[in-house]
Write a structure and sequence with these properties.
mainly beta
Length: about 500
């Protein structure tokens, strides 16, 4: 039985989001018309519109059944989740599969490093994983790797002037570019067309105390923006080669260190930066040949900006700050000074902000108070607070926006359902690492999650089709007819794993 209570903040506290079991009259009428066929699936001989609707309704009922019985009968819950996905891969079915069937202590691959992995990045096509560690090399791995792997696909030569510090940043799709960030602020630009040891980068750009939140490629890959501790944003030409001393443009007149930069989405022509004084500057790239002044200055924060992000439609920008808030602005270049449309609070500094990949329906904020909060991208109300028992950092959305991954110093990477509401303490799954995890990133199709910690990098299976196919190889996971009829009594039994 699902237990619920009301927190002092007015949240509904539940260990498992409740769902109502439903049977549709349309489903009963439609499937009875096909009951005389000798060999059929419940969805044969229906017109396509009704077929899709009925399959999805039954899938959701089976997924609800899985969440209802999981505490008392976990094996049955897994069978219901598999059946739900095989009937129709609805969002509810996918979440049930992640919740009940992801192997949380068995990654697909362990990619060993001689030193701790502090940073990682995935190529836009999801085929390559780049990892950086304290030995100052950057290693490239194929995401098709399986088992324990000691030898990478390629090794990018050592940063001659400083160790790899905070990261690796891939260029956008249709480029073969990778930027690596050294502790002394040097940015190396690499071409990834070859394999093996690569000692020479395509270009070397200078910076000062730069981290990956200060480095961003433009949507087309033609520019690399780097913010540094001198208060400048340097815009570099990625077609440059060799040691490059002069950028295309130098933006900013303040001496306040730049802590974050981000380009708007394709077609927006915007670049934003956030500094130690709490100001966010927005530049229009196409105007830089005329003026290096920002097109707009976004005000409101009382302390340093830690992170910022554009929504995927480019209409909104959010910035997290040392002042324990995230502020949200609608982009209005006609106004030289914009006040925020929303101020979203935490109990400590806000270190990370992320919008859902499609539109601005959800905003996730991660704080040093150890929680991740989800906010409505329309009215900006608080929808959910994740965590409480564990310290969570750096929320990352899956490409379809359905999942959120968070890292933690306790060695667990937690997967959360982004549709959860209220105070949520229990994640869908906890991927076990044993030691603190520093970074996590989804592949572009959402089928893999890459994580990094002191023992190396790991690849985790999140492709629900592959997970279900693997589970169906074990006969114990095939839902029986009797179990089927408990949930769908009037729908002919269709063995899910056959």
């Amino acid at each position: 039985m699902v237990k619920t209570s009301i927190t002092p903040q007015g949240f509904l506290l539940t260990h498992r989001p409740p769902r109502k079991l439903m049977l549709t009259a349309a489903l009963l009428a439609l499937v009875s018309a096909a009951s005389m066929l000798a060999h059929w699936s419940p969805w044969n001989n229906l017109d396509s519109d009704h077929q899709a609707f009925d399959a999805e309704a039954s899938s959701r009922q089976l997924a609800t059944a899985a969440s209802t019985v999981v505490d008392d009968r976990p094996a049955l819950a897994r069978r219901y989740a598999i059946a739900a996905y095989r009937v129709a891969p609805t969002r509810e079915a996918r979440i049930a599969v992640i919740d009940l069937l992801v192997p949380t202590d068995r990654p697909l691959a362990l990619l060993r490093h001689p030193e701790e992995v502090f940073s990682l990045g995935l190529s836009p096509d999801g085929d390559l994983l780049a990892t950086g560690d304290n030995d100052a090399d950057v290693r490239l791995w194929t995401t098709g790797s399986r088992g324990e792997i000691d030898e990478p696909l390629a090794t990018l030569g050592r940063h001659q002037l400083g160790d790899v510090y905070d990261g690796v940043v891939f260029g956008p799709r249709n480029t073969d570019l990778l930027a690596t960030v050294a502790k002394n602020g040097t940015i190396l630009l690499w071409g990834l067309a070859g394999q093996g040891l690569v000692d020479r980068p395509l270009a070397t750009f200078k910076g000062s105390n730069v981290s990956t939140s200060n480095v961003a490629f433009s949507p087309g890959g033609e520019f690399l923006a780097v913010g540094d501790q001198t208060g400048k944003v340097w815009l570099w030409d990625t077609t440059s080669r060799g040691s490059v001393d002069r950028p295309l443009a130098t933006l900013g007149s303040s001496s306040s260190p730049v802590n974050a930069v981000d380009f708007g989405p394709a077609g927006s022509d915007l670049l934003a930066s956030g500094d130690d004084e709490g100001l966010v500057y927005v530049w229009r790239i196409s105007d830089l040949d005329k003026s290096d002044r920002p097109a707009s200055t976004l005000v409101g924060h009382l302390d340093a900006i830690n992170n910022l992000a554009f929504s995927s439609d480019g209409r909104v920008i959010a910035a997290g700050s040392e002042d324990k808030t995230t502020m949200v602005w609608k982009i209005d270049l006609a106004s030289k000074a914009n006040s925020p449309v929303a101020t979203l609070g935490h109990n400590d500094t806000v270190d990370y902000v992320a919008f859902t990949p499609a539109g601005a329906d959800l905003l996730a904020t991660g704080s040093s108070d150890g929680t991740v909060r989800l906010w409505d991208g329309n009215g900006w109300g608080l929808l959910a607070s994740l965590g409480g028992a564990s310290t969570l950092y750096d929320p990352v959305f899956s490409p379809d926006g359905s999942l959120i991954a968070t890292v933690s110093p306790d060695g667990g990477v937690r997967l959360w359902d982004s549709s959860s509401r209220g105070q949520i303490d229990r994640p869908l799954a906890v991927l076990v690492h044993g030691k603190a995890v520093y970074d996590a990133e989804f592949t572009s199709d959402g089928g893999l999650l890459a994580t990094g910690n002191p023992t190396g990098a790991r690849l985790w299976e999140l492709d629900t089709t592959r997970i279900v196919a693997g589970a169906c190889a074990d006969p114990v996971n095939n839902l029986t007819e009797a179990e089927w009829r408990i949930v769908l009594p009037d729908t002919p039994y269709d063995p899910p794993c056959e």
